[in-house]
Amino acid sequence: MGKPNDLVQGTLDLLILKTVSLEPKHGWAIAKRIQQMSGDVLQVQQGSLYPALHRLEQQGWIKAAWKESETGRQAKFYSLTRAGRRQMEKELANWTRLSAAIDSVVLPLEG
Amino acid sequence: MRLRRIFLRLRSLFGRNRVERELANEFAFHLDRQIEENLARGMSASEARAAALRELGGIAQLQEECRDMRRVNLVETVLADVRYAVRGFRRQPGFAILATLTLALGIGASAALFSLVNTVLIRRLPFADPGRLAMIWESDTTGRTPLDTPAPANFADWKARNRTFADMAAGGWVTFNFTGWGEPEQIHGQRVTANFFSLLGVKPAIGRLLAPSDDNLQSGHVAVIGYGWWERRFRKDPRVVGQTVTLNGDPYLIVGVAPAGFQFPASGAQIWVAPGFTQRDFRQRNNHFLFAFGRLKKGVLLEQARADMTAIARRLEMEFSQSNTNIGAAVIPLREYYAGDLKLALTLLLAAVGVLVLIVCANLAHLFLARGAARRREIGMRAALGAGRGRLVRQLLTECVALSLVAAALGAALSTGAFGFLARLIPDSFPAGTELHFDATVFGFTAAIAFLTAVLFGIAPAIQASCIDLNELLKLGSARGSARRFGAQGAMVVTEVGLTVLLLVGAGLLLKSYIRIRNVNIGFRAENLLVLETPLPPAKYSDLARRARFYGEVVEESSKLPGVISAAYVNFPPLTFTGGSSCFYIEGKPRPRLGESPCAFNRVATADYFRTIRVSLMRGRMFDERDDAESPRVLVINQALAHKFWPGEDALGQGVRFGDGGPNQPVYTVIGIAGDVRQVALNATPSPEMYFPATQAGPGGSFFWPHTLVVRTAGNPSAPVGNIRRAIAAVDPNLPVANIRTMNDVLDVQTSGRQTQTVIVSAFAAAALLLASIGLYGVLSYAVAQRKVEIGIRMALGARRGEVIRGITGQAVRWTAFGVMFGLAGAFALTRWFSALFFGVSPSDPFTFAAATLLSFAVAALASFVPASRAASIDPVVALRQD
User: Fold this and answer.
1) If you placed Cys at B526, which of B60, B163, B184, B743 could pair as Cys (CB 3.0 to 4.6 Å)?
2) Which chain A residues have a beta carbon less than 8 Å from that of B72?
3) CB under 8 Å to B89, separation ≥6 — which residues?
4) Per-residue pLDDT tens for B252-295?
5) pTM here?
6) CA B584 to CA B602: how far, in whole Å?
7) For residue B66, which residues of chain A lie inside 8 Å, CB to CB?
């Protein structure tokens, strides 16, 4: 199973959950959004997104529906489920704690 | 949410086409959007497409990953592998059938034996909380004699003083003469304490079982009858409850019927009566005839109960030194009581079946290795098309498991065919019935064995087949392989031969034991001897003269019948029932210490007994009509007794006294010395034995009265049965005739367990020999086929036929020699553990070891003959032109 470069799996999950939390999106849009938001910092290969999407769907955190896209073509739209929202909040909290902890170790004390 | 997940998985599995289409569409959509964007950035059409593909990554792999995420991939690939395996086996039906049959043999044999183990050691006994039940026997603290039946007074003290048992119950065997209901009948029964049934926790079929109030005579004699007897004698009439029947002349009220199949602690009882014992009975310390059992208090360990009982027995030894010196108490858990004797035999049989399964696995591994070699190109193709090594191993193992499961189903069906035969090993006393069942436990075991064997025989071929060097494979034009592989194959042949030798030695030792025991000198002639029982009701026959008249008339009338040579009455003929002992004091010798006075089996017989069963009289005379109630008391002893108590002296004319040995007791004079007879068991050396004339009052009560008629016939011993019945009825029409059998039947019963074990292990050994020879044959044939060119070149260079044959057979002999060596060493180390199962043969019997060796080499020579002659007939020209 290929893992996204330089990105722990949980983090990719969090990015996906956050991205679809506002409105249903299809895979390409999710990929674009993550790229835009993170700029060049996170090298997410587009392809690695799909296994993650399928896994999250299997876990019941996101659900999929075929709908007409902005170009008029049918596309698979992913949206957050209620369980997915809980999961996202949990992971967000974890992330905040983790990054705060890392900050306190690596950042020089000021003042 | 859980439901949704299952729904998704099911959809992936069954709506596979739709899911696949969606997966394709999803990726196509992504690709197209990226291409559009790239075009918008000003790339050319081909550039835009290439860039989009690059950015997305390998679509096929990604899609496979998505499928993996849905986790149905596993199920799907297994299904695909099974389909593939079935197709493969269909192409080679011969291979599939041979492999399936071999495996079915191994799995079936283990399933059958396991169901025996399951019945005897695992299945629940049909009592309430059986784990807390234990038999309690008297033991000999010096360890000289085996466990004994307790005396009533000892039981009463155990029950009153112990702190580890919730309750104890006891019973004793009785024989009843059932009259006043059509034909008189002899039935065996037990007189029991009233808590007998409640302590075991069994429920009545109809009516009630015994209640505490039944322990005193106020409610009269009550009886519970056995289900079998109720069925046979009363045609299951429920109105029998509440009826009064006559047993030994006394009225008994039937209060209920025991559940079907109930028996405890041994088979044979058809009726249970209470009150079983009086307060006077419970003061007896010199008569040891009870069986006793107890239920441990909750949470009490076996060791605690044993310590408790040992302490009580030690106190009783001090309080009642006259009767209890050297008497201890043994607590035997119920399961051990039933299975104790069988454990070693079961261990041997399980070990044998384990060895057989290993040989089966080795053989299948051969088959699959050879098949793998033939399939190198097919597997190479799959590897070249991208199948990973793990995937290949999985696929090959799936084939093995599929085959194994089919074989397990077949083997399970076959195993039930052996149930009847194996059930002969279950003791009659076993309470849960003496039949084997294919229950859930056996099913689980069979399935587990199927998987285990599949992995065992499949893993090596699978790994080897998957280790494919594509370059090497593509370079090789033909199926010509390298000779490297023979290392593994040779090791497997050696293993097979070694294991086979192990089984051959085991079977040989058992067979020799069986032959030895059937030919043991029993001291009398068993053929053409009929045995039947006529229990005399004590009330009617309490008078010695009346008994003597009865015996005399029956013996005389029977002897006159056509086909009858002679007849005699005895209490316990050899090998049927141990009977009982009487202890004595020898005149003119110092009185022995308490608990150490000599004892010997007490036999009472009529004058023609020795002549009828053909026991030789060594010295003196047998008693005859001179020895009657008025004449001096006499006895005949056996050689064992003479040697033990008058070593180096003449026993003839010596006197002994019984009872307390005091001057009030009459002196019995030894008038003859008879040859030893195997009384207790074929494999037990004869113990001291005394014979008293039925016409004199001997030591001991009605228990020792002769009640067994033995008849020597000229021809078929069963022929005169009808006439004998009529002769007995003419003397006493109210006397039932029971337990009619020939002495050969008695011997068969003695050896049937041994015979069954011998047949099983011999069958395993034969199967092993066949499998090992097939294995050897297969490997050699394969080797010859692989080395065709090499052999062709050798022959072209002048090698002679004989040299080629020697080359092949030499290989076979080397492998066999190694195998035999390991096998003999293993047998030497292992057989001693089972020496208790052998008789008259040492566990390292050189004859058996040599025979196993010879047989192995002979079969190996046979198996290598065909491949060797095939090699010798190779035409160099044809062989070299083949490529």
Assistant:
1) B743
2) none
3) B95, B96, B399, B403
4) 999 999 999 899 998 889 999 988 898 888 988 888 889 999 99
5) 0.74
6) 11
7) 50-51, 54
Q: Which residues of A touch B30 (CB under 8 A)?
A: 26-28, 31, 46, 50
8 Å CB contact between B463 and B300: no
Does the pLDDT value for residue B345 go beyond 60? yes
Going from the C-alpha of B274 to that of each of B152, B195, B245, B790, the distances in angstroms are 15, 10, 14, 88
DSSP type of residue B872:
H
User: Which of A3, A12, A36, A46 would you mutate first to test chain B, the one with the most B CBs within 10 A?
Assistant: A46
Is residue A83 within 8 Å of residue B1, measured between CB atoms? yes
Of B34, B59, B66, the CB nearest to A28: B34
For tokens 């039933």, the residue is B338
Please give, rounded to a whole number of angstroms, the shortest distance from the CA of A11 to a CA of chain B. Answer: 18
Number of A:B CB contacts under 8 A?
A: 73
Pinpoint the alpha helices (H) of B537-623: 544-560, 609-613
Q: Nearest chain A Cα to B58, which residue?
A: A47
Task: Summarize chain A as % helix, strand, coil (round to 5).
Answer: 60, 15, 25
Tokens for B544? 């010695």
ipTM value: 0.84
The Cα B576–Cα B432 span in angstroms is: 24
Alpha helices in B385-538 (DSSP H): 389-417, 419-422, 440-466, 470-475, 486-518
Chain-chain contact of A74 with B25 (C-beta, under 8 angstroms): yes
The CA R_g of chain B, rounded to the nearest whole Å, is 38
Decide if B405 contacts B100 (C-beta within 8 A): no
Distance CA B329, CA B159 (A): 12
Q: What chain A residue is nearest to B2 in terms of C-alpha separation?
A: A60
Q: What SS3 state is found at B581? A: strand
* Rounded Cα–Cα distance for residues B794 and B799 (Å): 6
Which of A28, A48, A66 has the highest number of chain B CBs within 10 A, making it the mutation to test binding with B? A28
- Give B182's Cβ-side CA count (13 Å radius): 5
Q: Are B295 and B132 in contact (CB under 8 A)?
A: yes
Q: Could A46 and B58 be called an inter-chain contact, meaning their C-beta atoms sit closer than 8 Å?
A: no
Which pLDDT belongs to residue B148?
Answer: 85
Report how far residue B76's alpha carbon sits from residue B395's, in angstroms, rounded to the nearest whole number: 12
pLDDT per position as a tens digit, B650-687: 999 999 998 878 888 899 999 999 999 999 888 888 98
